[in-house]
Design a protein that fits this description.
The complex is a heterodimer of chains A (159) and B (850). With 159 residues, chain A is of the alpha+beta class. Chain A is built from five helices and five strands. A five-stranded mixed beta sheet of chain A has the order 2-1-5-3-4, sandwiched between helices. The termini of chain A are far apart. Chain B has three domains: 39-138 and 202-255 and 262-295, Aldehyde oxidase/xanthine dehydrogenase, a/b hammerhead (Aldehyde Oxidoreductase, domain 3); 302-479 and 637-797, 2-Layer Sandwich (Aldehyde Oxidoreductase, domain 4), CATH 3.30.365; 488-629, Aldehyde oxidase/xanthine dehydrogenase, molybdopterin binding domain (Aldehyde Oxidoreductase, domain 4, 2-Layer Sandwich), CATH 3.30.365. In chain B, the strands form seven sheets. In chain B, strands 3-5-1-12-9-10-11 form a seven-stranded mixed beta sheet, sandwiched between helices. In chain B, strand 13 and strand 14 (316-326) form a beta hairpin. In chain B, helix 7 (230-241) crosses helix 8. The longest helix of chain B has 28 residues, at 556-583. Chain B is globular, with a radius of gyration of 28 Å. The relative contact order of chain B is 0.13. The chains are: A alpha+beta (159), B alpha+beta (850). Chains A and B meet through helix 2, helix 3, helix 4 and helix 5 of A and helix 2, helix 21 and strand 28 of B.
Chain lengths: 159, 850
């Protein structure tokens, strides 16, 4: 039996009838049409479904919507604000950090949470923040470079 | 930073405005904003969900299938079984051995048996439990040795003798004389365990049948699928469903990684299409991660034996190479893979005589197929470690030994392959210099410590041993022959110019993340003198786009790139002819850049691109041009089987790996990889470096952690938790050096980068492990238990040397196929007879009129 709940997603209040056993991943993609959140395992192994719950990266495939009714949920669609890209989105595009692009939404959200908490992360801190997000294309190098470039850009540094 | 890079590249390549400059991919912004649609993101009105019910047994006869209970479940709309799709198919015309759903027999755990369509995935879960299949379990063969030992257990009828799917045997040059000439001969066995591509996107598709009662065929089918080869899927769907190709449209939307794993036509694609046809509703099937491991088509496990003769000065005199491939249950690309394990040994080093015997066996495991480096990764690993051993035996520096035998540009190999550009020597120079190879070796030989060992902390100093290893390799820039025999183009590009200045490029090529769509935009932009962002790209749609054979064999930049140049130049000729009149300037003096056509002698005399398009449309009518590409003739020998290995060009790569091995735990850490790649000419250096880094990362995982292991007939670790993919913590630092020596036939001189750079990484790491701890582990992955086992075995051998780590295959006394002998002179004769006249065919350089 479906249950009517209210979620706050990307600053919008969304009423949605969910099956209580469906994960946040399923509800975001299937019920709310937010297909930017990806899935690669449905078991919490790959990090592709990462979203921010009150600014903290969480795996939407291991989260039940009823648990996060009071929280602010940010998906990749909400990282862009008023038509302006997050600096990470700019640098990922400019520096070739997204190849197939499938892990990219999850990595961008993990990266955004990192830069929020730590505006000048070291390479080691970037690795730690992204250790739960598997990328099969890039070898991570361009991802590190893009996170570092975004950090610099957010500090108002030269790009 | 970016600007600086831009300037450097511009200086290095003054004739190009776009080519060779780092810039975003044309689809970068849709990917970083979540807008990019992948197959599973497609949702259509009234769409049903589908699922395959798979075999729980590695080998069994199907006695009965009962679907009644499942069909009665509310919400289940349709169920099909093997009888509903009785037409065999397979990617290779010579391996038509798969059914969409098993008939009579299942051959691996995961073989699809039943397909269900229902209103939602929850109902599918219920329905799958209600399907009852009665099996008679048969003995299962789970390894190369078991498959050879039990010919009486016939897995697949494609095998003529026992479970031998394919056996090949070749001798090029005088092998016996070559060995007789040698001062030293060495033999080794190696084992490569194989692995899965593990793209982060699981395979998915949506099929939509639109009935049309006035059409004798009954309607048209559209399939969106995460495939690397829409053209081949198109053909196989038509065959199995009995629907003419004219009524089928296959579209590859954004594909979330492939690496070879999305190159076959798959059961879930065919079943989704059939379920859609039966229900008249769209059907989506998305595979789970476990299913991705089961449908597999991954790297073949291969046992290899090599015998090489060498003179005292290091000159190679002959090589005899044998490969035994564990093919899994079906053919897939396996016949090509078998050839590939032998064909390219001659492309890296000069071999005056070469014998190759290969054999692929059926086993009761998920079918193997092509993975990045297709069939060449395993022998490259074996040969490069073998070379390292020979260098060590001869007391030569591994770099000097390799350098002494390097293949030379614009030559022929002993098996008849045409070599064009080759900058392997420069690649070796670069990795040797950047890694400090010489200083490290000197320090090691003199017993002094290289400074990098001093950085280690006190504890690790006691048990950690460091080493450097090197390897070289080569790879094809596109298969010289298509998968099915034909004399049609391998790639075609169509360009349409709109009077408003719009440019639309149509090509069947499939972007799986490597950037093939962007490459075409850059090339057309360079030719027409506009910005890539101005171009609208339509790709990978069998109804809209001319055929490109697919994203396999590292073919797209080379082949579609040349087709794009050919198409763009036709339009450019039309634009320039009207511009010449308008600007009162000879055509030869015109150039185009920045959206303008201008007189090179009077750069102020310009005509905007849009205006030129309008004038040309007024003169010539609608502006549409097509270009196509097929590899030149005369690039291979004239023996049966010569079609695997030839390519219009070869890329070259070299790698140095630095490892730290903990002799107490057996743990191997790769601290750094230096990669040099001969790419001919970067179309976009950012994307080339990305391919090199991705290849290095994937090679690293194959070398140390990715395991393809089975227990009681089942894949033991079909999840991303247990199957180890390198994370940010594991992946070593990668330093990439691009070596740019333009190829005469490549688009702007460009060559491949997608696959080649993976190949040297695995042997470089293996050689570094030996350099660090003095023992060889002649199989990959090199896991901690194998390191400890080898150290222990050496200790027990008490100076008698290290016992071999790989158990040899019992070789049949008679190789089960006819030996084909071929001498390289024959091709020289053919060339002088005029048959090789196209061998020097090439795409003219920029500015040169063809």
């Amino acid at each position: 039996m479906r249950e009517l709940i209210t979620l706050r997603v990307n600053g919008e209040r969304r009423e949605v009838a969910v099956l209580p056993h469906h994960t946040l991943l399923e509800v975001l993609r299937e019920d709310l049409g937010l297909t930017g959140t990806k899935h690669g395992c449905e078991l919490g192994e790959c990090g592709a479904c990462t979203v921010l719950i009150d600014g903290v990266p969480m795996l939407s495939c291991l989260t039940l919507p009823v648990e996060v009714q009071e929280a602010e949920i940010t998906t990749i669609e909400g990282l862009e604000q008023n038509g302006k890209l997050h600096p990470l989105q700019e640098t990922f595009a400019e520096l070739g950090a997204a190849q197939c692009g499938y892990c990219t939404p999850g990595i961008l959200l993990s990266g955004a949470a990192l830069l929020q908490a730590n505006p000048r992360p070291s390479r080691e801190q970037i690795k730690e923040a992204l250790a739960g997000n598997l990328c099969r294309c890039t070898g991570y190098t361009k991802i590190y470079e893009a996170v570092e470039a975004a950090a610099e850009r957010m500090q108002g540094g030269a790009s | 930073m970016k600007q600086q890079q831009d300037e450097q590249v511009q200086k290095a390549h003054p004739p190009y405005k776009i080519i060779g400059t780092p810039r975003p991919k044309v689809d970068a912004y849709s990917k970083v904003t979540g807008r990019a649609l992948y197959a599973d993101d497609i949702m259509l009105p009234r769409m049903l969900y589908g699922r395959l019910v798979r075999s729980p047994h590695p080998h069994a006869r199907i006695l009965s299938i009962d679907t009644h209970k499942a069909l009665e479940l509310p919400g289940v709309i349709a169920i099909i079984t093997g009888e509903d799709l009785p037409q065999k198919y397979g990617i290779l015309p010579s391996s038509q051995d798969e059914y969409a759903l098993a008939i009579d027999k299942v051959r691996y755990v995961g073989d699809p048996v039943v397909a269900i369509a229902a209103l939602d995935p929850d109902i599918l879960d219920e329905a799958a439990k209600l399907i009852h299949v009665e099996y008679e379990v048969l003995p299962a063969l789970m390894s190369i040795d078991e498959a050879l030992a039990h010919p009486e257990v016939k897995i697949n009828d494609e095998a003529r003798i026992g479970n031998i799917h394919k056996a090949v045997s070749y001798e090029f040059g005088e092998v016996e004389a070559g060995f007789a000439e040698a001062d030293y001969i060495r033999e080794d066995w190696f084992y490569y365990e194989g692995n899965n591509h593990a793209p982060i996107e699981e395979h998915a598709c949506v099929a939509n049948w639109e009935p049309n009662p006035s059409d004798p065929v009954g309607g048209k089918l559209t399939l969106w699928s995460s495939t690397q080869t829409p053209h081949y899927v198109h053909r196989e769907l038509s065959k199995v469903l009995g629907i003419p190709q004219s009524h089928i449209r296959v579209i590859a939307p954004n594909v979330g990684g492939g690496f070879g794993g999305k190159s076959d036509p798959f059961s879930h694609e065919i079943c989704a299409a059939e379920l859609s046809r039966r229900t008249g509703r769209p059907v989506k099937i998305t595979c789970t991660r476990e299913e991705v491991f089961l449908i597999h088509r991954g790297r073949h496990p291969v046992k290899m034996w090599i015998k090489t003769g060498v003179k005292r000065d290091g000159t190679l005199t002959a090589m005899h190479f044998r490969s035994f491939l564990d093919g899994g249950a079906y053919g897939s690309y396996g016949i090509a893979t078998t050839y590939y394990t032998g064909a390219l040994q001659t492309v890296t080093y000069k071999l005056p005589a070469y014998k190759f015997e290969g054999m692929r066996l059926f086993t009761n495991k998920p079918p193997c197929g092509p993975k990045r480096g297709h069939g060449t990764t395993q022998p490259r690993y074996a040969v490069e470690v073998h070379m390292d051993k020979i260098a060590h035996d001869l007391g030569m520096d591994p770099v000097e030994f390799r350098r002494h035998n390097l293949i030379e540009p614009y030559t022929r190999t002993v098996n008849g392959l045409r070599i064009t550009s080759c900058a392997l020597s420069e690649c070796l120079d670069q990795v040797v210099e950047h890694s400090g190879w010489k200083a490290f070796r000197l320090a090691k030989q003199s017993g002094t410590s290289d400074q990098r060992t001093d950085h280690a902390d006190a504890k690790s100093n006691q048990t950690t041993k460091r080493g450097l290893g090197l390897a070289a390799s080569s790879y094809i820039c596109g298969a010289g022959k298509p998968i099915y025999w034909n004399d049609l183009p391998h790639s075609a590009v169509q360009i349409r110019l709109d009077r408003g200045g719009g440019v639309t490029v149509y090509c069947g090529s499939t972007d799986i993340g490597q950037g093939s769509t962007s490459i075409l935009a850059y090339i057309v932009a360079e030719e027409l003198g506009i910005q890539p962002e101005q171009i609208h790209m339509e790709t990978a749609d069998t109804s809209l786009t001319p055929v490109d054979l697919g994203s396999y064999s590292s073919r797209v930049t080379f082949m579609a790139g040349n087709a794009a140049i050919a198409a763009a130049r036709k339009l450019k000729d039309q634009l320039f002819s009207v511009a010449a009149e308008q600007l009162h300037t000879p055509v030869e003096q015109l150039e185009s850049a920045g959206g303008m056509i201008f007189d090179t002698n009077d750069p102020g005399n310009t005509l905007p691109f849009v205006k030129a398009v309008q004038l040309a449309e007024a003169r010539y009518g609608a502006l549409v041009a097509a270009g196509s590409y097929a590899p030149p003739e005369g690039i291979h020998g004239d023996y049966k089987g010569a079609g695997v290995g030839p390519s219009p060009a070869y890329s070259y790569s070299a790698c140095v790996a630095q490892v730290a091995v903990d002799v107490e735990t057996g743990e191997v850490a790769v601290e750094k990889l230096w990669m040099a790649h001969d790419v001919g000419q970067s179309i976009n250096p950012l994307l080339v470096a990305g391919q090199v880094e991705g290849g290095a990362y994937m090679g690293y995982g194959e070398a140390l952690m990715e395991q393809q292991i089975f227990r009681k007939g089942r894949h033991k670790i079909p999840s991303l938790l247990d199957y180890k993919l390198a994370t940010t913590f594991d992946t070593p630092e990668i330093e990439t050096i691009l070596v740019e020596v333009p190829d005469r036939e490549g688009p702007f001189g460009g060559k491949e980068a997608g696959q080649g750079p993976l190949n040297p990484v695995i042997p470089a790491i293996a050689n570094a492990v030996y350099d660090a701890i003095g023992v060889r582990i002649d199989e990959v992955p090199i896991t901690a238990d194998k390191v400890l086992g080898a150290l222990k075995a050496r200790g027990q051998a008490k100076g008698a040397g290290q016992p071999p780590t790989v158990k040899p295959v019992e070789i049949p006394s008679l190789w089960p196929t006819r030996l084909i002998k071929w001498q390289p002179e024959e091709i020289e004769l053919a060339r002088s007879n005029g048959n090789g006249q196209h061998a020097d065919m090439r795409v003219p350089a920029k500015g040169e009129k063809s």
